[in-house]
Amino acid sequence: MTQVLRQIVLLSGKDLRIEARSRQTLGLVAVLGVLIVVVLGLGLGPERVKSGMAATAVLWVAYLFGGVLCFEKTMAVERHDGALAGLMLAPIDRGVIYAGKLLSNLTLMLALALIVTPVAVVMFGFDLSAAPFGFAAIMAGGFVGFAAIGTLFAAAVSSTRSQGGLLAIVVFPVSLPLVIVSTQMMMRLFGEGEPLGAVGLTVLIAFDAVYLVVSWLVFELILEP
Amino acid sequence: MTDVSAITAESIMPLADAVADTVSPAVRMRGLSKRYDERWVLRDITLDVPTGSYLALLGANGAGKSTLLHTLAMLSPATRGELSLFGESATRPSPTLRARLGMIGHQPMLYRDLSAVENLVFFGKLYGVSRPKQRAIDMLERVGLADRAQSVVKTFSRGMVQRLSIARALMHAPELLLADEPFSGLDVPSVQAVSALLAELHADGKTVILTNHDVRQSLELAQRVVVLGRGRVVSDRPVRDADVDDVTREVIG
Predict the structure, then answer these.
(1) Closest Cα of chain A to B118: distance in Å?
(2) Which of B31, B59, B187, B196 is the most buried (most CB within 10 A)?
(3) What are the residues whose beta carbons fall under 8 Å from the beta carbon of B122, sequence distance 6 or more?
């Protein structure tokens, strides 16, 4: 178990080191996320912008599009120069490769959230301090499921020719239930209806568990050098 | 007392065969076939590659050489037939079996944004190599890249990338090395260096399977030459029985 964890951290550490050096993904994703928040904020107008519903919806749009870019970029690193074949040759379980990629994607999405969320707080003026832990829990729950499915599909799509648009097309519909639950929970948390509380979080965790287990099992079958 | 003068090659052959049967070959293929969509790229390949031997796989483009190496590397499964490596089935290979294998492919399998030493240390750790940093430095010296250890791979020339790729494949001291056209894109000194490295590996008792387009060079390096044509074994003979012109004719088909 310790060895598997060490391998996962090794794989993810390699991804993050490459990202820290090239700064290709986070730079792009941050600009995209901030642009989405600003453009949608301006587009919604001063009245709607003040509602918690608009703020959470816009934030999730930024997270989703930014997330898809993260999934694509972290898998593209493996496609360059056949590095994925190098990993597949190594004496590690294919599930470890999946978990390493998932951890990299989650870290990048967390960095995206740390950049985009404050912009949304300023832009929409919603009071994050009213429920910071609830916000963090919902975000974490949503991110895990979304990254679980996104990491799987990024690996599948990366071996096809039509990479760019295809990933968003396949990931968004599959992750829709998770996104609906997450946004509903956030809207209610920030004052629009009864909070979903523990029930909502249980549903979110159940979705995460299903997505994680299925993706872990399927990853080995779809991985091609 | 045994009469030594009575021992002939013919008389010891059955004994040699019996000994060979008790030792698992490095690679055993039985009716190995591989299909992509509707096209069979490997057809019914049956070969044994004894441990410690040096085999050259020759063939024209599309003959199935790279596909065969990919299948041997367990990167993609065979459609039909059986494959075992060191006596273990390759259907569900154990990590231990994977660790006994090294591969030099058409692509370098390196990370261009990492330095040479970072790449080798990363792969060394994946294989559980002890003191990976020291081993990486040793390998870089062996392939003549010690002075570029800290340079990122994207600044390397094609030949340097190829040499680093060889260092990556040898980081964990594999017992079986699959080398898919390791000389492509190399200048003459690099070709000599890589040839020497492969010869050294073979001298250490490792098994080497090499694909190459240069018939003469293959016959100089290997012990045995197998020619593939349209996914089938066209010929299989020891190098001492091989003639450059004959083999070239078989390769051209």
Answers:
(1) 9
(2) B59
(3) A10, A14, B111, B114
CB pair distance less than 8 Å for B110 and A10: no
Which parts of chain A fold into alpha helices (H)? Answer: 2-22, 24-48, 52-79, 83-89, 94-124, 132-158, 164-189, 197-222
User: With contact defined as beta carbons under 8 Å apart, do B119 and B164 qualify?
Assistant: yes
Which site among B67, B109, B133 would you substitute to test the A interface, given the most A Cβ atoms closer than 10 Å to its Cβ?
Answer: B109
What is the set of domains in chain B, with CATH numbers? Answer: 24-100+175-253 (3.40.50.300), 110-173 (no CATH)
Q: Is B113 on the interface with A (CB under 8 A)?
A: yes
**Whether the predicted pLDDT of B7 surpasses 80:** no
Question: Amino acid letter at A120?
Answer: A
CB A86 within 8 A of CB B104: no
Is 80 exceeded by the pLDDT of residue B25? yes
Check whether A133 has a pLDDT greater than 80.
Answer: yes
What pLDDT, in 10s, does the model give residues A11-47?
A: 999 999 999 998 888 999 999 999 999 998 888 876 6
- HSE-up (13 A, CA, CB side) for residue A113: 18
Chain B residue at shortest CA distance from A225: B75
DSSP code, position B115? B
Short-list B67, B65, B168, B162, CA closest to B107: B162
Looking at beta carbons, which residues of chain B come within 8 Å of A26? Answer: none
**How many pairs of residues across A and B have Cβ atoms under 8 Å apart?**
73
Strand order, beta sheet including B101-104: B101-104, B176-180, B207-211, B54-58, B224-229, B232-238
Query: So what's the pLDDT on residue B1?
Result: 46
Whether residue A17 and residue B110 make contact (CB cut-off 8 A), yes or no, is: no
pLDDT of amino acid A223 = 85
- Of A106 and A193, more confident: A106
The reply to whether B70 touches chain A by the CB within 8 Å rule is yes
User: Which B residues 122-151 touch A at CB under 8 Å?
Assistant: 122-123, 125-128
Closest-CA residue to B73 (of B87, B95, B90): B90
* B34 CB within 8 Å of a chain A CB: no
Give me Rg for the CA atoms of chain B: 19
What is the spatial distance between Cα B44 and Cα B40, in angstroms, rounded to a whole number?
A: 10
Q: What is the pLDDT of residues A136-186, one digit of tens each?
A: 999 999 999 999 999 999 999 887 766 667 888 889 999 998 988 888 888
Q: Which residues pair with A201 in a beta bridge?
A: none
Q: Can you say whether residue B138 is alpha, beta or left, with left for phi > 0 and alpha for psi between -120 and 50 degrees?
A: alpha
* Predicted ipTM of the assembly: 0.89
